[in-house]
Amino acid sequence: MTTLITGGASQTGLALAALLQTEGIPVLFGSRSGRGVPAGIPSVKLDFTDPSTFEAPFSVEGHKINSVYLVFAEFDPFPFAKPFIDLAVEKGVGRFVILSAGGRRTEKGPDSIGMGKVHTYLDEKGLDYVSLRPIWFTENLSRNYGYGIKQYNSFQNTMSKARVPLIAVEDIAQAAFYAITDISKLPNREPILVGPELVSYPEIAAILTETLGRQITHITISQDELVKKYQTYGIPDALARYLAEIEGEEEAMGVGEALMKDPRTLVGKLGVRDWIVKHKEEFAPA
């Protein structure tokens, strides 16, 4: 029985595929572009904004899909997710695992937004699902801040005091693997995923300085400056403002610290320092 991994060659999707293959579980990628899918793993075109592609994963010879890992690029994926989920149920999919987010606005219920709407729908339909709700990815240190660190030995965000339990992709993938293979290893069906330690961004700058052997500085900017920064990356205005607001809440309310004490939380293994040591070549000067 095959696991369909949507969202193309996402960070967590690739890591999950490697875990599943190690256990001999067949994997099929659904990808909008086909770029980045590992050689030797079958893939089909699956574009959530194009319903004509929805049948493709269920028509691949030799693959009977019984679980789906849902990853969406859209800020509000529900209009696309609903018809795909309905079709997948018709095709015999037994379990859905969705990569959601750990903020209060993605809590299940009528007031949820973004990915929260999707797992609210899965719950309302009485389907077998797991919603993984990670806090900030540790990989954001290279994806979001890597250019500044390499070019200018500095990086920027709005958080000067907040201590955040960043979660590594490999720990998220491990949780997704359990969600597909052995749900009893998760604390619940909507686990909040956090890293093993609380760390501030000035502390991260100090770790980078020590590990890279050159001075790295964290610079605090305003929320409006952050929104403009996200917009220059091509991030839609609504998503840019949402991400900036989350950072603001983290700084003002200590959300990450509260999540460490939440009984719904699953704590990963890879800490920030070990992750930076493991990935230090990604921060080499440009």
From TrEMBL:
SUPFAM superfamilies registered for this protein in UniProt: NAD(P)-binding Rossmann-fold domains
Superkingdom: Eukaryota
Residue ranges annotated for the NAD(P)-binding domain, each copy included: 7-167
Signal sequence segment: none
Listed Pfam families: NAD_binding_10
Protein name in the entry: NAD(P)-binding domain-containing protein
